[in-house]
Amino acid sequence: MNKPLILIVEDDTAVKNLISTTLEMQNYKFHTAETGQQAVMAAASQNPDVMLLDLGLPDMDGVEIIKKVRSWSNMPIIVISARSEDRDKIDALDAGADDYLTKPFSVEELLARLRVTLRRLSYMQSSKAADEVVFVNGDLRIDYSAGCAYMEEKELHLTPIEYKLLCLLAKNVGKVLTHTYITREVWGSAWENDVASLRVFMATLRKKIETDPAQPKYIQTHVGVGYRMLRIE
């Protein structure tokens, strides 16, 4: 993909300048907005590749901005906010955010999160991962047409629920999925708050795909929030 355009939505001048300078030093193109209204207009008119979004804007809550943008765009949205409670993270991610970075943050972490998001965006654009027949990530391979998964070319013996979990994470590789989203997609709305069952199945799935389930390489836990499949280089 061409050099991406980043939309910075931040009303704090010091933070906005820090992010802008960081992106400029990395030769990223960027556009800035200081209000929710400006953010929505810029998202529609500038066609940015990624949005960096502060939740505490003067005219509109950031979660509302996410919902508005999601009504027409799948552009990756990374929230950068001083709100650190799990509920705030869950609300933003459930609304459609792709990642959540808590203030204060290091510029190194911001750039790392941005690189992960851009890799996922590039991968989705180039291979149409949601519709591909075979998914490959490190030693993991999923053959969607055959309904089989392999680790180091050895077939994994997965239960139907484990396979659905693995496919859901794979089709959203690099993105944090909340407990509610996962349980709703796998079991249906009647079970969307059954986090205990999700943890049990996630533990059994990890035992089958991770070399060391205590230090997982493929499936990352976001405590109190959900799970993310990491892209293996």
TrEMBL record:
PANTHER family: KDP OPERON TRANSCRIPTIONAL REGULATORY PROTEIN KDPE, REGULATOR OF RPOS
GO molecular function: cis-regulatory region sequence-specific DNA binding; identical protein binding; phosphorelay response regulator activity
Localization terms from the record: Cytoplasm
PROSITE patterns from the UniProt entry: OMPR_PHOB, RESPONSE_REGULATORY
Gene Ontology biological process terms from the UniProt entry: positive regulation of DNA-templated transcription
Origin: domain of life: Bacteria
Modified sites of kind 4-aspartylphosphate: 54
Domain spans labelled Response regulatory: 5-118
Domain OmpR/PhoB-type: from-to ranges: 132-231
Species of the source: Qiania dongpingensis
Pfam families the record matches: Response_reg, Trans_reg_C
DNA-binding region per Swiss-Prot/TrEMBL record: 132-231
Function in brief: May play the central regulatory role in sporulation. It may be an element of the effector pathway responsible for the activation of sporulation genes in response to nutritional stress. Spo0A may act in concert with spo0H (a sigma factor) to control the expression of some genes that are critical to the sporulation process.
Protein name per its UniProtKB record: Stage 0 sporulation protein A homolog
GO annotations of cellular component type: cytosol; protein-DNA complex
Keywords assigned by UniProt, alphabetized: Cytoplasm, DNA-binding, Phosphoprotein, Transcription, Transcription regulation, Two-component regulatory system
Chief localization: cytoplasm
